[in-house]
Here is the input.
Amino acid sequence: MNKPQTIDEYIEGFVGQARELLEQLYVLAGETVPDASEAIKWGHPAWVHPSGTILFVISGHAKHANFTFTPSTREAFEADLCDVETGKGSVKLPYGSPVPTVLLRRMIEYRVREHEDDGVLWM
Here is the structure.
């Protein structure tokens, strides 16, 4: 399979619950940061601030999707993420489980402010 050149191509590479979740995350990202540009970075969908800094990345896996922010963004929501599996800067979203859209929207907004106000770049 060829590497995806667009986010649409990336999402089309998934089926069922995986595709549904990735589509949900795509819509959420577009609604929350409409001024960000979309790109494929390291083979995954990324949203890029007009300054050129990556804001966040999503990725699909066998049983879950990851929504990856900077570690500082993830850490700022530590208390809200106590029931969610996380990584260094990522939030693991199992397929078939409810998506914490309100929390993710808050995290996206925080990430934008973190970059614009504090100059936090991508990892």
